[in-house]
Specification:
single chain; mainly alpha; elongated
Amino acid sequence: MLKELGLESCADTYVGGALLKGISGGERKRTSIGVELVVKPSMVFLDEPTSGLDSFSAMQVCQVLQKVARAGSSVLFTIHQPASDIYNEFDQLILMNKGRVMYQGSVDDVAEYFGARGKPLPPKNNPADWIMFVAQSVPIDQLNQLGFFPADERNLPDPGTEIFIDGKDESGNTYGDGLADIDSRGASVLTQLRLLYTRELRNIRRDKGAIGARFGISIIMSLLVGIIFHNVGETDSAVSLVTLGSMFGTAMPTLLAFPEERPVFLREYSTNHYSVLSYFLSRFTMEAVITALQSLVQANFGMFYITVYMLAMASTALAVMLGSAVEDPKLGQELVPLLFVPQLLFAGFFVVPNLIPIWLRWARYLCSLFYAVRILLVLEFGDGCGSPEGNKACDRLIESVGASEDEIWWSWVILVALFVVFRLLALIILSRKALKFF
């Protein structure tokens, strides 16, 4: 495809944007055409694909579209005054004038059609230039009198019925030439995943600033917590700050990722580049790896690390579900308090769970932070705090959140279950959202 569209020289160049210089306007247009053609669509409709291109590039685009048409796809596009070489490549032509069809039929019959109505094609003249001149210079009433707007008397079959007879359609065109040389199957799930993983890794490599800031903030916050709470483990605990840092640091970037990428996802999904499941799995895998590395900065030993990592994954699952439900990144930012504030209130940091009204107390069981705190408190203080007074204080702290060493495995089960449920809900929401294109 790169060779056919003349894009080999810029294959490794950024497309660019408003603030980043990339490929030229003509190369960008050919790239956008190539993106749609790689999935072998059954119908291709383009709006002035040759505008802004030089004559050679325009000819390349038309030759590629002709190959697509010969392979069995229906190719339609609008064009203004094409060069004679491009015009001669057309199979069928529809000439519009003031919203009415002035000519519709084979390109080979244009000269005869115009000649029979008193407007013969001058010798050595581009037919496209001539018919455009006639359409714009002759008044509509005169064209109507000359018979340029005949009534449509075609007897078209009902949609969906078979119109091919002996391999030809009603216009006499034969389709399917070259189909044996073209694999019409769509990309497999493994191929989709491989390409999506490649793009995710490339995006991470290009966006070093965001990744660096994400890990840098985690490192700085972990150092501050470590310095402030150094050698005070017998009188105080940094469990709350570690869990909050894990939840905030991983969920925030994930929450904003889906709304920002939504336009690209919808465009590529609507053209059957990949399935929702493939996109979701690629995003999940990359998030799991990055979250694992980020959690390693905050907690790097044994069960403590596993707990922090599971909390981060459950938080990102909730963020993905919320991010999949919204379409505007600004709306996603506005919903951040809805994601975090209830977790803080029900986890037992500021209010003991027993002091929460009974009719509202059930909400804590939906908060992943609540279960992570219970697990970490048992791991941190379950074996005592070094002195009788300290042991009593630690026991009261564990009891205040309803934790118990014998039942801690329930917290693990529910924490994993919340992760799975939120991820499945996000997949369902994303699948439904994929059906909307605006």
